[in-house]
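> example.struct
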């Protein structure tokens, strides 16, 4: 199935507006979308095969009026903020009384951290809709903006209007809609460029990302459209007898099979035919692929975690160091925890300090448990190394609670980061954020 960007607006709404302020122009937007359909379809195809900047440039040139600029900006919002922002701004400046234009521009300002400007537009939009309580997403976005300008009480009141109990799933996606990961398509484009310049080892990253495409914070699955094009590039670039080609195709075949003992013989056959993993055969030269394949082997009982850790654990550490691939270290840490019951402090510290991986820093502090202190120099360093980590701030906040120190400043920083990532919640949901805001309310 093709990957379709199309004109999916972040906040496309059907409302009855108050004529005194903003008005909706849904009909004009739909007409513009119809006119743009060929250009957007061409853009979708271009994304998979051509230079990203060229694709974007051609698409932008197809915009003939403010409604088309608005729609193209929506298509680029999750791909290139540097291009979506000015288009949303131009549409708004052309017609600031248009509700859709105002909302999308507000979200752009919000994402850039221009909170006061975003607040003005959000508040005006709320005043324009006939049933404000139905537009709780605006209250959600206002809550984040207000906490960032120090208006904590106003943040709390807007959060309450979101009705967390009723709308928690929609809140999750509304938070993501502002803080969507814009690095994915650009990252793929950069990999393809480097591969075409001769760095064929990057095929491992390219195909792994296609097979495990992050459609949002919660859903990872195969990106069929990109994968087909990137496999074609692989086929036209390297020999079918090469290790890269054979390993990648073995990986794809293995990922298709059910991860159950019923598939055991088929999995073993593919691994043996491609001389991978089994009987001390080489591991794939990519930590992510190796992790996936080992998980399959352990699940289907082809390999035993204890035995693999004992016989090949040191090999994982050497490959991690040689290739500067933290995923090999992560495999070692997983096996060590499964076999011994914990990860050695030295491994967590290595993953944190040498590989700059937040997962290992968190594991390190969880391992320290009650030894963590609010003024711990190591915790201070972690906050420098991972300034956007809600999880690290969660550790600091817990230290403040345990030590009976003033929790409010740290809790506010935690809330700010949680709004951007939902990172401290085990499932990546807004439940923890709700708890933090409720706690903040008790500290008045």
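> example.seq
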């Amino acid at each position: 199935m093709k990957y379709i960007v199309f004109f999916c607006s972040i906040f496309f709404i059907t409302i009855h507006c108050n004529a005194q302020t903003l008005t909706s122009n849904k009909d004009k937007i739909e007409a513009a979308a119809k006119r743009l359909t060929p250009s957007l379809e061409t853009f979708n195809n271009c994304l998979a095969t051509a230079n990203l900047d060229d694709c974007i440039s051609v698409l932008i040139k197809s915009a003939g009026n403010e409604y088309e600029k608005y729609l193209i900006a929506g298509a680029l919002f999750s791909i290139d903020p540097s291009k979506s922002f000015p288009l949303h701004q131009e549409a708004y400046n052309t017609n600031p009384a248009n509700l859709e234009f105002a909302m999308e521009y507000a979200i752009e300002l919000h994402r850039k951290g221009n909170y006061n400007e975003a607040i003005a537009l959000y508040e005006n939009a709320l005043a324009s809709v006939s049933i404000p309580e139905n537009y709780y997403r605006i209250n959600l976005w206002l809550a984040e903006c207000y906490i960032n300008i120090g208006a904590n009480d106003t943040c709390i009141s807007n959060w309450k209007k979101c009705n967390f109990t009723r709308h928690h799933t929609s809140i999750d996606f509304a938070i993501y809609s502002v803080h969507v990961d814009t690095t994915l398509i650009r990252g793929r484009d950069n990999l393809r460029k480097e591969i075409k310049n001769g760095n064929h080892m990057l095929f491992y990253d390219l195909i792994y990302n296609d097979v495990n495409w992050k459609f949002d914070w919660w859903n990872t699955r195969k990106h069929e459209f990109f994968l087909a094009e990137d496999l074609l590039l692989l086929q036209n670039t390297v020999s079918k007898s090469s290790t890269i080609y054979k390993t990648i195709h073995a990986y794809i075949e293995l990922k298709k099979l059910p991860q159950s003992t019923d598939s055991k013989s088929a999995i073993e056959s593919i691994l043996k035919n491609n001389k991978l993993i089994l009987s001390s055969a080489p591991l794939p030269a990519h930590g992510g692929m190796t992790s996936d394949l080992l998980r399959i082997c352990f699940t289907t009982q082809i390999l035993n975690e204890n035995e693999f850790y004992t016989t090949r654990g040191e090999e994982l550490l050497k490959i991690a160091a040689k290739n500067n691939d933290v995923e090999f270290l992560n495999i070692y840490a997983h096996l060590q925890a499964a076999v011994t019951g914990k990860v050695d402090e030295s491994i967590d510290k290595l993953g944190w300090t040498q590989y700059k991986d937040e997962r290992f820093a968190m594991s390190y502090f969880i391992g320290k448990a009650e030894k963590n202190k609010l003024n711990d120099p190591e915790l201070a360093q972690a906050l420098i190394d991972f300034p956007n980590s809600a999880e690290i701030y969660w550790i600091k906040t817990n230290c403040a609670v345990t030590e009976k120190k003033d929790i409010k400043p740290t809790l506010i920083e935690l809330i700010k980061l949680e709004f951007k990532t939902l990172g401290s919640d085990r499932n990546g949901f807004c439940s923890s954020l709700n708890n933090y805001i409720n706690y903040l309310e008790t500290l008045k």
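> remarks
DSSP finds 23 helices and two strands in the chain.
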